[in-house]
Amino acid sequence: IARKLASSEYGVFAMDYPGFGLSQGLHGYIPSFDMLVDDVIEQYSKIKGT
């Protein structure tokens, strides 16, 4: 899906959350949901340029 969107000139971003993707540790385990939300907000702000 990401490649298709990118080829149609959409910006595509992905995050490797702790416990998912290539990160180390227990797969699927999120030690702090609040920290996860803060990380998503921070990345969104960077993408939007604010």
UniProtKB/TrEMBL annotation:
InterPro entries the record matches: AB_hydrolase_fold, Hydrolase_4, MAG_DAG_Lipase
UniProt feature coiled coil, ranges: none
Pfam families reported in the protein's UniProt record: Hydrolase_4 (PF12146)
Annotated ranges, domain Serine aminopeptidase S33: 1-48
Protein's name according to its UniProt entry: Monoglyceride lipase-like
Organism: Trifolium medium
Lineage, opening ranks: Eukaryota, Viridiplantae, Streptophyta, Embryophyta, Tracheophyta
